[in-house]
Amino acid sequence: MKKQTSQKLSRATTYFLLTVGLIIVALPFWYMLVTSLKPQSYIFEMPPKIWPTEITLNNYLTALRKDSFGLYFMNSLFVAICSTLATIFVSSMLAYAFARLDFPGKEFLFYILLLGMMIPPVMLIIPQFIIAKQLAILDKFIGLIVVYITMNLSGQTFLLRGFFEGIPKEIEEAALIDGASRWKIFWRIIFPLSKPGIAVVTIFTFLYSWDEFPWAHVAMKETTKRTLPIAIALFQSQHLTEWGQVFAASIVSLIPIVVVFIAFQRYFIQGISTTGIKG
Amino acid sequence: MKSRKLFVFMGAILALSIIMSACAPKVEEQAADVPTVVDESPAEVETITEPVMITYWHTMSDPETEQIEKVITAFEAANPGITVESTRFAWDDFKPALITGIAGDATPDTARMDIAWVSEFADQGALMQLDGVMPGFDDIADGTFSGPLSTNFWQGHYYGLPQNTNTQVLLWNKEIFDAAGITDAPATLDEFATVACELTKGETQYGYALGGTYFWAPAPIFYAMGGEVVDADITTASGYVNSEDSVAAFTMLTELFNQDCISPNLLGGGIGTADGHATGLYAMIVDGPWMVDIYKGNYPDFEVNFAPIPTGTDGSTSSVVGGEDVVIFEGTENADAAMKWAAFLLSEESQLTMAEVGVIPTLSSLIGNEALPDYFGVFLTQLETAQARVPHPAWSDMDNAINNAFQRMLNGDQTPQAALDQAAIEINALLQ
Amino acid sequence: MELLLTKFVKILKKSSTALIFLLPGLLLFTVFIIVPMIYSFRISFYDWKIVNPEQSEWIGVENYLRALSDPIFRRAALNTVIYSLVTVPGQMILGLIVAVLLNQNIRGRTFYRIMYYLPVITSWVIVSLLFEYMFSGQAGLVNYFLRDVFHVTSENILWLADPILTFVPIHLLGIWKGIGWTAVIFVAGLQAIPQHLYEAAEVDGAGSKEKFFLITLPLLRPTTVYLLVVLTIGSLNAYISNLLITNGGNPMDLTHFILTLMYEATFTKLDFGYGSAISYLLTMCVFVVSVFQIRMMTKPIEN
Questions:
Q1: Which of B9, B96, B104 lies closest to A130 in CB terms?
Q2: Gap from B60 CA to chain A (nearest CA, Å)
Q3: Does A246 touch chain C (CB under 8 A)?
Q4: Which of A138, A235, A237 to mutate to test the interface with B (most CBs of B within 10 A)?
Q5: In chain B, what are the domains?
């Protein structure tokens, strides 16, 4: 009897703490939403209102109509999906090699790869730009995609290597004896078993490619091919920031990542607990 | 199984976006085809030129962007075979984009850049010299105001043309003034200081507000008080940035700030001057001609009132010259077309088109033109006495030195004299 | 010689399968990371001219010395280290609490999980602008709460005008944005702990406190070290929030991070050599710190 009450109590505490935390975490978002519904003249009202007094959808209408917002949205979606699929492909192959195959300099190569997780991407922008220019991939979607794959490579390969190492070797050994090639094993056996790991990679890579600003800003000068973060940056004018529009555009831009997260989050935890993180 | 559905879903979106983005270039291709057709028409046989596309980067506002598209259409009609592709950048991100472009040898053909940057980029060798190269340069240059033109001059040559000019004047909120029984904007800086404190009501109303501590914000009052940054030959700041007049200007601002007659927003993280002025928080601000269109869009009921910058001790007014120059980048493959475009931007026709949205022309022939908006009058008058910031490659560092000095004064770390003495030393180091 | 060649061919043959798997990844990595790294390393020894690189002047380690003796750089390094020391433990402690709470069998777990993860998936630019707006010194939401709702202060606090107070929004942002991600990783770690350990402990009469400190925490060690490494790297490499909130080191260049300083040198002052030197100094620090932490991480596996 006593145990039950204490359990109930601890359960109540859990909900209480989680909800308090939730309010703290969500408050800025709520405020962003409220602000996006205010006309400019109410943006700096005193005292600030947590509840909108005068709701207007004008910010959304103006923001979405501006500078072919819809086109930029689709561009971003295209780039993010391509980068994600390609990263899954490239980094899972790398990870498989590091997890299962033998080759000289394996450990050294792996450490070099880890270096990619440590460097600040912004320091590479100018050299990357020079290379991209020579490869003639500036102002093209492919120019964004290859760099996004590369910037995600280290982290995702590290995760997937751990994941592959967790798959029992016996499964492959049986197939090897049957004469299957490594290539076949990888695609037919390992890859289908790795859904949770791939879900993790998908969430991380999609997020990165969707939000990336500095590279997209310099590498994509063609107006019709720009991505969403650049469109949002353009809302900040030199003389007056239209906060309502900035936040309206931001909220719209959040939708795809939330969708991706909700879609893959079921595998997310499972994926992480079986990837490289646990050691 | 669910994951398979998701991949199908992602694939569908992917396909859709491929189609969407594939459509966009197509439209462009068709557009690019048009001049080719014109080229083939018999009338143009004389000048069979390859159709060229030139790029033009800028940081224009929404209404300005709309207008420049009209200018481009007119240019393309007048120059068959040349198309202009304009790309807009956010102000904060423009310089990084230009610098990366230069480093990677992927600069635009032309750009509209801040007048304070031209000497810096020219000094790096990134800009094309225009005098003696561009056809008709002398005529075009002669037709422009000399102040804005001078910002293109670096070490004996011109590296751009003044595309537009502007300056800051006083904006005063008539409602606040009326409520206090004051009928007109202050005429002298003494009056200005008195009025600023008279119109201050604790935290609900400030007499005056500056947009920040960077030189652009205090510059109008600084120059009106007779302040100077360096000597005419740009060799030293000693005795200039820390001269009696310069110190007096910053002393006045610091004192007003200490009396809470200036809003604390200038230190960062407050309500912007444009919003605060329209909502009745700031009685006076200084700002430029673009405010008319910005207020039209965001505060349609607000009535803007301009007045000249109040006069200093010697009875004369002054302000700071702003604006942008059109430049052509070194190494462009389309120099001829780019020069035509630059010349077109300085034509009366284009200047008048841009003027519709508050962009002040640089052509002296347009003074008094009836097509110009009425409120340009006060700006054009102010421009007669306004001064340019130091045309030197290290200007942004000098700006930072003054900015930090101003911050030290406002913080009470140093007296204006001591802070500006230090700034003089820092600026002198940059001039060597 | 011939022997060496045949040996080489043999190795190549043996690792040809591996080569196929490695090729696309390593190619991209070399072209877009290794080569750029070498390039900017070279530049860090020059007074680099961006327009005419061939005219650049070799100045040895002067860029590095200049950085190390520059008070603005030192202050930036201090700010970066403090940011790291505040936000990494902050994220880990709060993330662990959230993870433990979320790991129970509660209703609406998915909902909570998504809500806590929302800051993680929002771009740095957006949340930085949001915090700047909320911490506005005049009509900001935070001042409103502190002054009018909780009466903690009688005057508006000018958060962004003060070289110390500016870091309140920056640090809070860093923690707030990372809790969700840290919590998710901890939840994964918690779920990997075999349930029977807890059951056995319960039989031995252990309370929830003992279970947490004797089972959960020690078994979470690999997860903790992983988070420590990744969060430390992330915090040392942070710059967007600072760039947007302090607007380039305001006030008085006292609020830079190392990377904002690098950004300013490279992208607004055209001082590419100096910018590269700064980023290499940072990379070296990050490298040393992470190798030290990775050593800690790999140890239990060898045992």
A1: B104
A2: 9
A3: yes
A4: A237
A5: 41-166+322-378 (3.40.190.10), 169-319+394-431 (3.40.190.10)
Residue indicated by tokens 């230190």: B267
Q: Is there a domain that residue C159 lies in?
A: yes
Give a yes or no: residue C130 inside a domain: yes
Q: Would you call A176 an interface residue with chain C, using a CB distance cutoff of 8 Å?
A: no
Those chains having 3 or more beta-carbon pairs within 8 angstroms of chain C are A, B
Look at residue C147 and tell me if it is in a domain. yes
8 Å CB contact of A97 and C18: yes
Whether C43 is covered by a domain: the verdict is no
A4 touches chain B (CB under 8 A): no
Q: What is the distance between the alpha carbons of residues B142 and B365, in angstroms, rounded to a whole number?
A: 10
Give pLDDT tens digits for C42-62.
Answer: 999 999 888 888 888 999 999
**Neighboring chain B residues of C138 at a CB cutoff of 8 Å:** 203, 263-265, 270-271, 281
Res A46 pLDDT > 70: yes
User: Subunits touching A (CB < 8 Å, at least 3 pairs)?
Assistant: B, C
Q: What is this model's ipTM?
A: 0.88
For tokens 């026709």, what's the residue? Answer: B349
What are the CB-based long-range contacts (under 8 Å, 24+) for A23-29?
A24/C176, A25/C115, A25/C116, A25/C118, A25/C119, A25/C176, A25/C179, A25/C180, A26/C115, A26/C118, A28/C119, A28/C127, A28/C130, A28/C131, A28/C134, A28/C176, A29/C118, A29/C119, A29/C122
User: For B279-299, how does the pLDDT look when each residue is reduced to its tens digit (9 = 90+)?
Assistant: 999 999 999 999 998 898 889
Percent with pLDDT over 90 in chain B: 75
Asked if the model's pLDDT at residue B261 lies above 50, the reply is: yes
Measured in angstroms, the CA of B330 and the nearest CA of chain C are apart by 9
Domain containing C293 — which CATH number?
A: 1.10.3720.10
Identify the residue among C32, C40, C43, C51 best suited for mutation to test binding to B, counting B beta carbons within 10 A and taking the highest: C51
Tell me the Ramachandran region of residue C159: left when phi exceeds 0, alpha when psi lies from -120 to 50, beta otherwise. Answer: alpha
Total domains in the fold of chain C: 1
Question: Quick check: pTM over 0.95?
Answer: no
Domain that holds residue C232: 69-302
